[in-house]
Design brief:
By secondary structure, the protein is of the alpha/beta class. The protein contains 9 helices and 8 strands. The protein has a single domain, classed as P-loop containing nucleotide triphosphate hydrolases (Rossmann fold), CATH 3.40.50.300. It has a 6-stranded mixed β-sheet, sandwiched between helices. It is globular. The chain starts with a strand and ends with a helix.
Length: 211
């Protein structure tokens, strides 16, 4: 699991959108599992969650899953199997037949996460998935991401929450003004900066860059 950290405007969302195949890099190459990120093959191997991942207000989560499952070429039986699995993991059972317009922010985020994971892709790309969520919704998302990691999925997410990144990530990278300043295991970054916390290391790296 890889966490992309950085202040607002650092380039986190831009980087993730390039990996999701939604933006073309001006230089270099973006790829997913060795496949050009903008290709249909790569898009089928990843699920991308962002602040703009919308739900159709007039559809229920169940209808949403069947619609997007059909787009991914899944059979009705396979879709229902994934609905059952994801509902258990994300606590969606009581939400499946309510119209999305009546769901809370946290409920919509959990449904959106299930939507992008429906086709069971090997790569999940999550752009600040817990932003604006309450404690319970954030915990549910973290637990799900941790389960996917244990299943062998590659998870890349951006966050402002350093404690969250330190808790979840095997490796992190710090973006600042479009530049990757440092990356590695959180413990190694703390040690390199002689810092007790990731926040302290973050501030020292940025201060040295600005200076």
């Amino acid at each position: 699991m890889y966490g992309l950290l950085g202040p607002n405007g650092a380039g986190k969302t831009t980087a993730l959108r390039m990996l999701a195949g939604l933006l073309q890099p001006s230089r270099g190459r973006a790829s997913i599992t060795g496949i050009e990120a903008a290709s249909l093959a790569a898009r089928g191997r990843q699920g991308f969650l962002s602040g703009s991942t919308g739900l159709y207000a007039h559809l229920t989560p169940r209808e949403t899953f069947h619609y997007f499952g059909g787009i991914h070429g899944m059979s009705g039986v396979a879709i229902q199997r994934r609905i059952d699995t994801l509902s258990g993991w994300l606590g969606l059972s009581d939400l499946l037949d309510r119209r999305c317009e009546h769901l809370s922010t946290g409920e919509r985020q959990r449904v959106s996460l299930a939507q992008i994971a429906l086709h069971d892709p090997p790569v999940l790309i999550l752009d600040e998935p817990t932003q604006g969520l309450d404690v319970l919704a954030s915990r549910a998302l973290r637990d799900f991401v941790g389960q996917e990691r244990e299943r062998g999925k590659a998870v890349l997410f951006s966050t402002h929450y350093l404690a969250e990144a330190e808790l979840l990530c095997d490796r992190i990278g710090l973006l600042f003004h479009g530049r990757l300043l440092i990356e590695g295991p959180p413990s190694a970054i703390r040690a390199k900066c002689s810092a007790d916390t990731l926040e302290e290391a973050f501030l020292r790296i940025v201060d040295n860059t600005v200076a």
